[in-house]
């Protein structure tokens, strides 16, 4: 038995050559390694290792490879937090970041964390409305790895972390008005299968997004614009759609003498409103109210309106109301009264609307002066009261020198 063990050891060493440590790869039972056999085997192993300086084993290679992969994974996980800290924030830089991650991480380790980090920086790089960027984020996931193989996997959310990541990415698209296309569905099917949650959500999104996008009678430009002047002009045009004859004018406050603010003024008024303004008594006070909030898509602007008190209107009568039936042969005929216009509301008559670049009192005063010189000469005789909201700045008395402390400011506010 002892000679048999020695022969097996010699044959194994001669077959595998220098890439062997017998004590790890080739193990004999303990009953063979006792007495002189154990000492002889240990001597052979030590002599074999001392004669070969580049002595490595297959097990050591596997351990080193695993350690290398672990370090690379840790490095990629740490660098995910600093991938998008570039000073040049544009689409080209964002695409370069995705290419770097794909080349440095062929095993796709930490891809979910990377996609979550990329979602946070979409707005910073101004690519939140680019459909190609969302497709490239989906393409970071490996193909055929998360595909469901049976009905149980599809019902119990196979690879839930990866599916939830893509579902949230589709939620971001839906909130921003983006709609998936057939190419995106193909990408999702290759990665999750036909019955997965991302593919189902993508189908629902393709069905509902076009319907809801066309439901607004005053559509917002897509992708959304960021120019305040264009937003103000489109917002005033939306307000003036109640009267097809309304005219939207754009003026500059610097055309008014002694104007303090140099900004644009977008004004909206119809010929009917000009007639209502001209018919007002010269002793009646009209008011400038605002700033009022108007949401145009995801942008909020402030606008002002010129309003007069409610005029005396006749009581509207419903001719189809049988409870108030009158025989024309027995009662005196009623007077013919002109129906009120759309600008004559219950709380007052709206005479004009505007939006300025600074929303300040001086810009609104310039608007009134420009209205006077553009078809409304009655404003020179009618008193105008500015019922504007107080500015959100610190209020200080003009008859006192020095800054106002917090306690004094609270007392002034109480007064």
TrEMBL record:
One Gene Ontology CC term in the entry: mitochondrion
UniProt keyword list: Cytoplasm, Immunity, Innate immunity, Mitochondrion, Nucleus, Transit peptide
A single BP term in Gene Ontology: innate immune response
ECSIT C-terminal domain: residues covered: 270-389
Principal place of residence: cytoplasm
Subcellular location(s) per record: Cytoplasm; Mitochondrion; Nucleus
Family recorded in the similarity comment: Belongs to the ECSIT family.
Protein name: Evolutionarily conserved signaling intermediate in Toll pathway, mitochondrial
């Amino acid at each position: 038995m002892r000679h048999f063990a020695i022969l097996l050891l010699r044959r194994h060493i001669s077959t595998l050559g220098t890439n062997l440590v017998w004590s790890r790869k080739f193990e004999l039972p303990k009953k063979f390694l006792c007495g002189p056999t154990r000492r002889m085997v240990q001597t052979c192993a030590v002599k074999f290792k001392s004669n070969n300086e580049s002595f490595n084993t297959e097990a050591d290679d596997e351990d080193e490879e695993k350690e290398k992969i672990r370090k690379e994974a840790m490095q990629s996980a740490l660098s995910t937090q600093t991938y998008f800290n570039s000073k040049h924030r544009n689409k080209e830089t964002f695409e370069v970041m995705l290419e770097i991650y794909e080349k440095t991480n062929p095993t796709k380790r930490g891809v979910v964390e990377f996609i979550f980090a990329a979602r946070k920086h979409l707005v910073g790089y101004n690519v939140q409305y680019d459909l190609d960027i969302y497709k490239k984020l989906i393409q970071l996931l490996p193909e055929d790895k998360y595909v469901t193989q049976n009905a149980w996997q599809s019902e119990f959310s196979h690879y839930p972390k990866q599916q939830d990541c893509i579902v949230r990415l589709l939620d971001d698209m839906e909130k921003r008005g983006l709609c998936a296309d057939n190419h995106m569905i193909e990408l999702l099917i290759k990665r999750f299968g036909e019955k997965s949650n991302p593919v189902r959500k993508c189908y629902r999104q393709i069905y509902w997004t076009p319907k809801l996008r066309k439901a607004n009678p005053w559509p917002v430009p897509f992708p959304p614009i960021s120019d305040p002047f264009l937003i103000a002009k489109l917002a005033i045009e939306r307000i003036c759609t109640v009267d097809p004859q309304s005219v939207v004018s754009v003026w500059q406050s610097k055309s008014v003498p002694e104007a303090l603010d140099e900004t644009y003024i977008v004004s909206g008024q119809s010929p009917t409103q000009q007639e209502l303004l001209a018919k007002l008594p010269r002793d009646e006070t009209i008011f400038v109210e605002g700033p009022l909030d108007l949401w145009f898509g995801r942008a909020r602007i402030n606008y002002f309106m010129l309003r007069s008190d409610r005029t005396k209107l006749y009581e509207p009568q419903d001719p189809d109301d049988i409870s108030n039936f009158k025989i024309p042969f027995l009662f005196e005929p009623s007077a013919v009264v002109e129906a009120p216009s759309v600008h004559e509301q219950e709380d007052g008559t709206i005479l004009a609307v505007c939006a300025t670049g600074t929303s300040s009192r001086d810009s609104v005063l310039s608007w009134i002066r420009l209205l006077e010189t553009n078809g409304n000469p009655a404003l020179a005789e009618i008193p105008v009261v500015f019922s504007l909201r107080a500015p959100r700045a610190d209020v200080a008395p003009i008859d006192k020198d020095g800054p106002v402390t917090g306690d004094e400011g609270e007392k002034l506010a109480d007064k």
